[in-house]
Amino acid sequence: MDAGLSNCTAHSMAVTVNGDDADNVRPKSKPEDGEFVEVISLPKNNLLKRVTLWCLKNI
Question: Which Gene3D superfamilies does the UniProt record give (predicted)?
Answer without folding.
Answer: Nucleoside Triphosphate Pyrophosphohydrolase
